[in-house]
Write a structure and sequence with these properties.
188 residues, five-stranded antiparallel sheet, five-stranded mixed sheet
């Protein structure tokens, strides 16, 4: 491959490289004071499972299978935000590409970006959710062009406090699923 080195992006947030990252979302740009009201916490579990769920037909059946104790998420994100405030999380790397001198090096950002905005009412929470994950694709030759695998999910969904929701992947051919749970207290 034509990659020489990489380093962790310090662009938006710094997070640990462990599989479970806890990140407090920042208030939308331009807001200088803390938003009004109580915070809410969104836990997002990212599952990468092979063929085992493909024979499962419905979203509720898939969710039931994913929530079994022996199925462990590949990654978990904890996002804290406030009513009608955009939360933004970016976790990833910035990778140098090519053989150019250091001052002319081109960079490619890979990783996960999560954006969400929620409207909280007494009975439910409506969440506008945007998830993008970019990673380098496998390459079988040294001189191959850089290829990326991209997974994107954009949805608006209605959630109840404490009840997990399958956000995406019900028809996933690659075994990728996202499950979100919203709560008023941060999990430990």
């Amino acid at each position: 491959m034509r990659f020489h080195w990489c380093f962790v992006v310090i662009a938006v947030l710094i997070v640990s490289l462990s599989t479970e990252s806890t990140v407090c979302a920042q208030a939308a740009a331009g807001q200088s004071s803390r938003p009004e009201g109580e915070p809410f916490f969104l836990k997002i579990d990212e599952y990468k499972i092979g063929d085992t769920l493909r024979q499962t037909k419905t979203s509720s059946e898939i969710l039931e299978q994913l929530l079994k104790k022996d199925v462990v998420p590949a990654r978990t994100f904890h996002v804290r935000s406030y009513d009608e405030t955009e939360a933004f999380v970016q976790v990833g790397e910035r990778i140098a590409i090519g053989d150019k001198p250091k001052d002319k090096t081109e960079f490619l950002e890979v990783g996960t970006i999560i954006r969400l905005r929620a409207k909280i009412t007494d009975e439910k929470v409506v969440v506008d959710f945007d998830y993008t994950a970019l990673k380098l694709a496998e390459s079988d030759t040294e001189n191959a062009a850089v290829r990326l695998n991209e997974t994107t999910l954009q949805t608006v969904t209605e959630m109840k406090i404490g009840e997990p929701v399958l956000l995406g992947g019900a028809n996933a051919k690659n075994g990728f699923y996202l499950v979100a749970t919203i709560s008023k207290n941060q999990e430990k």
